[in-house]
Specification:
This is Major facilitator superfamily (MFS) transporter. By secondary structure, this protein is an all-alpha fold. The protein folds into two domains: about 1-195, Growth Hormone, Chain: A (Up-down Bundle), CATH 1.20.1250; about 210-400, Up-down Bundle (Growth Hormone, Chain: A), CATH 1.20.1250.20. The protein is built from 15 helices and no strands. Helix 2 (about 15-40) runs antiparallel to helix 8, helix 6 (about 115-130) runs antiparallel to helix 14 (about 335-360) and helix 9 (about 210-240) packs antiparallel against helix 10. The chain is globular. The two termini are about 10 Å apart.
Length: about 400
Amino acid sequence: MSYRELARATHPAFFPIGFLARLPYAMTPLGTLLLLHHATGSYAFAGAAAAAQSLAIGAGGVIVGRLADRTSIRQLGVYLAVANAVALAGLLAATFADRPTLFAAAVLVGATQPQVGPLIRVHWSHVTRSRPEKATLITTALSYEAAADEASFIAGPAVVGLLAAAWAPVPAGAPLTACIVLLLAAAAPVALLYTAAPERAPSRSMPAPLPRAGLAAMCAAMAIMGAIFGAVQVGVTAYATAANNPSAAGMLYAALGAGSAIAGIAYAWIPSRVALRTRYRLFALGLLVAMILLPAGGTRLPLAAVVLIAGIAIAPYMITIYAMTEQLAPTRVATTMTIVCAAGPVGTAAGQSLAGLLVEQSGHWAPLMLPPVLAAAALVLAMTIRTMSADRSSFPGDADTT
C-alpha cells in the first residue's frame, strides 16, 4: 500500500494541518519548564510541575477515549483544542500568582491536552474500517503517523528554542503563546476533518467489554517505551552537561527521533503476510539489540550515532503496538487507543524519575544503562503475552494481517 493511496483516502489538507496540530504536544513540556523556571527560579518546582502535567495528560487521555466512543470525535477535538488554549492562557497569567496556582495551572494544561495523535489514529481506523484493503491501509496510516510524531518531536523543541531566543521581551512565554496559536489555527480545524465512526444500530445493551488482559499488555508495552524515552532524555542531557556542552542535549535527543522517523516511513513496506504477533516479537528483539548499544555511546562509540541507531528500532515497535491495539475492540477503538497512548507519558515520567536518581547516585553514564533493562522487559512481555489469558481471542495480533 503506497502513501499516494493513503493521501487519497482523506481530505488533502488533513496532512499539513494535522502535522501543525500535533506540535503543541511536543512544545508544551519544554515550554512549561522554561516558563515555570523563569517565574520561580526553581528547577525542582518546574520539574515537579512538568511531571504532574505528564501524568495529567495520561489521565486526561483515558477520559477523552471514553468520551470519543460515546460522542462525535469532531466536536470533542474542537472543544479540547479550545479548552487547552484557554488553559495555556491561564498558565501564562498564573506566572503572576503563587506557586500552588502555577502548579494547578500546569496540571490543567495537561488534563485538557487535545490528544491529537490518538484521535488522528482513531480517524484512520474509521476511514479504513469498511475498505477491502483495510489491513494494508491502516498499516500505512500508522506508519505515517509514527513518522509524523517523531518529526514533531524534532521540530517542536527546536521551535521552542528559537522562540525563546528570538522573542526578547517575554522569552519564557513565547513558546506557549505559539502553542495557543497552533491549537486554534490547526488543532481545532483538523478536528473538523476527523471521520466519524460508522453508524451502528441503536442498542440499549451495555457497550462491548474491553479485553482487559490484551489492553493491559499493550499499556505495559507502551509504558516501557515511554520509560525508555524518559531515560534517554535524562541520559543525553546528563552526558552533554558533563561534557560542558548542555545545548547539545537537544541535538542528541533529536537523533533518536530522526532514526525513528526513518524507520516509521519504511514500516509501510513490510509484507502484509507477516502477522502482527510475529512483528511484535521481532521488533521487541530489535529494540533490545539497539538499546544494548546505548551504554557504549560516548565511550567506545559516538553517542549521536548510537542514539540514531536506537531510534531506528523504536517506530516499528510502536507502530505494531498501535496496530494490535486497533484490533482489540473494533467498536471501542477510541477508548483502547487513548488508554494505550496515555501509558506512554506515564512511563516517561517514571523513566525520567528513575534515570534522575541514577545520575545522582552513579554519575552521568548511569541512565543509559536503563534502556537495555527496559527493552529486555519489553521482549519478555512480547514472548509471554500468549500465556496471559485462556481467551486468545481477546489478544490482538493472533491473525495474519492479510
